[in-house]
Amino acid sequence: MRRCHVDELRRLVLLHIAMILCLGSASCGTSGDSPAADRIVDVQETYAIAGATGQELRWAPDRLGPLNDDGNHYDAVTKWNFEYTYGREETSDGCHVASLETTTTITTILPRWTADPAAPAALVARWDEYVSCAALHENGHRRIYLDALARFRSHLEGLGDRPTCAALDDAVGVVEAAELHAVQTGQSDYEARTDHGHVQCGKFP
After folding, report:
1. At a CB cut-off of 8 Å and minimum separation 6, what does 42 contact?
2. pLDDT at residue 69 above 70?
């Protein structure tokens, strides 16, 4: 029995932009709801905005929000970085995936507003309501990514034996490309159904 080793780290980076607000301080955590070989890291970053009225708070992300790859500012950006390595084992039956380890980092960049003590109570309440709802919307995007991770593992582990390790690498590449397309489609469909969260949360202010 001879073990074949993958000599490169395959990377899959997905960028997803959502015009959604979610309030929170910078944090980084590792999820515990996945197999031991799947490492999931959640990161939250914030950028400061200022405003005394609802309209000012609406304008601030338009000027200061994170840039998408199209060069436009958005209220928030959620992006996934997915890395995986797999071991190959070659036997008399062929070559198959013997091990799989993944690291998934999901990062959201969110606005941070510190209300002035004199800020109208109704504005503060509306902001809190909006960002709380938006957090639920953002979790929907996160779930799409995590579902893709589970499918990716299932598909790779189900590839079985291929005639050669080169053929196995080709099959893994096909799975990667298919999953990338599925994630992009899933995220686009989710945005269309929710109108970027506006169906769930309304439009601020």
Report:
1. 27, 28, 29, 30, 31, 105, 106, 142
2. no
